[in-house]
Amino acid sequence: MFIMNKKTHEKSVVIEGVTDEGEMFRPSDWAERMGGNLATFKDCRLHYSPLLQPSVTEEGTKCLILDPILKQTNPELYASLLAFAEVNHLKICRDEE
């Protein structure tokens, strides 16, 4: 699953909440927690950044969508999110680098 950034024409990285063994990742709110890294609180509501969006796949799997711009604007966060996914054996969908 890839999502195209219309401005940069690059594909977003999608981290799926499914391990390499096919197990659902826990805790169930992991994507919202990760998305909170760039979220803001305004008008008594949490607003996720367009650069880091928790989402749900068509199959109902939680995922985290990393906009390619995040790699330039916040490389440390970008790297730590990918490291989190790798350490926890989560599926990472991205372009070949």
Explain what this protein looks like in three dimensions.
By secondary structure, this protein is α+β, with helices and mostly antiparallel strands. It has one domain (13-93): Alpha-Beta Plaits (2-Layer Sandwich). 24% of the residues lie in helices and 28% in strands. The chain is built from three helices and six strands, in the order E-H-E-E-E-E-H-H-E. The chain has helices at residues 30-35, 70-73, 75-87, and strands spanning 13-19, 40-42, 45-47, 52-56, 62-66, 90-93. The strands form two sheets. Strands 4-5-1-6 form a four-stranded antiparallel β-sheet. A hairpin with a 5-residue loop joins strand 4 (52-56) and strand 5. The longest helix has 13 residues, at 75-87. The radius of gyration is 13 Å and the shape is globular. The two termini are 16 Å apart. The relative contact order is 0.27.
Task: Describe the structure using short key phrases.
two-stranded antiparallel sheet, alpha+beta, 4-stranded antiparallel beta sheet, about 100 residues, Alpha-Beta Plaits
> CATH superfamily, please?
Uncharacterised protein PF12112 family, DUF3579
Mean pLDDT: 88
The assigned structural class equals alpha+beta
Our measurement of the CA-to-CA distance between the termini, rounded to an integer number of angstroms, reads 16 Å
Q: Helix coverage percent of residues?
A: 10-25%
Sheet with most strands: strand arrangement: 4-5-1-6
